Amino acid sequence: MVHTSPVHSLCDDSSIFCDNIDLGFYDMDYQSSKPALQPMKFESLDDESMSYECLQPMNNDQILPQKKSLPSTEMQSNLLSWITKHPKNWTSSEVLDWVYYVAGKLEVDFCRFRGEAFQNMTGAKLCQLSSVDFERLVPEYGMKLFDLFHELLRGANFSKPDFFNEAPMLSGLPMQQMETNETKYEPKFDGTMLSSFEQQMRTYTIGDREYDFDPNMFPEVQDEGYNTTTGSGKVTRRPPGRPPKKPRQSVSSEDGSDGEYSPTQNRGRRPGQSAKGNHLWEFIRDILKNSMYCPRLIKWEDRKDGVFRFVQSEAVAAMWGRKKNNPGMTYEKLSRAMRFSRSAGYFAEVPKDGKYPKKLCFKFGPKAFGWMED
DNA sequence: TGGCAATTTCCTGTTT
DNA sequence: GAAACAGGAAATTGCC
C-alpha cells in the first residue's frame, strides 16, 4: 500500500521508512497561499490504504501546518493538539509540542536548540513573554520563535479536516475567534499514529551529535524524599528501595494548571500510552527500517542475526519519549525497558564473542518479528 | 474488579 | 572517572 508523506526532501523513495503506526498528521489546517509539493509515496507495512497531502515547502516566514487528511477518526495524539487551540489555552505540553514543531520546521541543530527551556510553561505564560524572554530561554533561536509565535497569534486560520464529521465547523475562523469554540472542539487522534512527520522533523535535525541537555536551563524539580542534592548543594543519598506510594494528585501541568512537577507523581505509563501496536521492540524495529534514522541514530551490526547498535542513544530515547508522550525519557530508561523486553523474549543477549561491540548493542529476540524484511 | 503485560522511574552495584 | 550495563523494587496504565 502507499502513503504520501511530508518528508519529501529528507529521504529517497527507495529506502523510505513508513511504518503503520508512525504516520499521524495534523487534525487541523492553517491556510497558506503557497503551492504544495508533489507527495512522495511510501510503502507501508499495514494493509490499510492511506494517503496524505504533502507539506508545502518551508520557509522561515511560513511555519504553519498545511492541510492533511487523516485515515482515522481516533487520532488522539496530544502532540498536535496545540493546532486546535488558541495559544493562550495551550497546556505546557502543547507549548513544548509547538516549540519542537517549529524547531523541526526550521531544521535547527538540536544540539544547540534549547526547547526544553519552555518546559512547564503554559500557553498563557508564553503569550506574556517578550522577545527578550524568548531570547533568554533559547539564545540562538529565541527571536525566531518569538516572531513565529506572534505571527501565529496574528493571522492563522483554522479549517475543519475532512475526517471530523462530528466536529463543529471551524473553517476560516481566525484564531483569535477560536478560543470560544475550542472547548467544544475535541479532535480525535489515534494515539498509535502519533509522531510521524512531527517526530521525523524533530529528529531529522538532531545531526551527528547527541542531545545537548543543559539541566541548568530548567527549574529545580520538586522531589519530596528523592532529592539527591540539598539546597546547599550537598549530596544526600535516598534510602534504598522504593518509597511508599503517595496519594495521586490530579494531573498538574499537563492540564494547563500551574501545578508543580513532581517525579513521584509522574511514574509509570501515562494516559494515552497504550502499548497496543506501540511496543518498544516495534519502535526499534521500525526506526531500523527507516533510512532517516538508520544508520545515523541506530544501525545494524548484523542484520541477519538481528544485532543492532545505538549510534545516538539519547536521540533515540528522545524519539521514544516523544512517541510515548514522555519528554523525560532517557537512554538509561529506554535501555532498562529493553532489558525487560529481553527477558520477555523481544530482545536477546548479544553474543559476547567479540564479534560485536560490547556497548549499546542489542539483538532481536525470538518474539520479535518483521525486522528481517525490508 | 483483579490480574497481567509492558513499561517507567529510581536506585545500587558492576563492568568497560 | 565516566559511561554503559545489569537488575531489583515499586509504581502506573491499558487490556482482558
TrEMBL record:
Region Disordered, residue ranges: 217-275
UniProt-listed InterPro entries: Ets_dom (IPR000418), ETS_fam (IPR046328), Pointed_dom (IPR003118), SAM/pointed_sf (IPR013761), WH-like_DNA-bd_sf (IPR036388), WH_DNA-bd_sf (IPR036390)
Keyword annotations from UniProtKB, A to Z: DNA-binding, Nucleus
Spans through the membrane: none
Domain spans labelled PNT: 69-156
Places the protein is found: Nucleus
Keyword DNA-binding: yes
Keyword Nucleus belongs to the record: yes
Gene3D superfamilies (alphabetical): Transcription Factor, Ets-1, Winged helix-like DNA-binding domain superfamily/Winged helix DNA-binding domain
GO cellular component: nucleus
Chief subcellular location: nucleus
Ranges annotated as biased composition (Basic residues): 235-248
UniProt GO molecular function: DNA-binding transcription factor activity, RNA polymerase II-specific; sequence-specific DNA binding
A GO BP annotation: cell differentiation
PANTHER family: ETS, ETS-DOMAIN PROTEIN
Family stated for the protein in its record: Belongs to the ETS family.
Record-given protein name: ETS homologous factor isoform X4
Originating organism: Lingula anatina
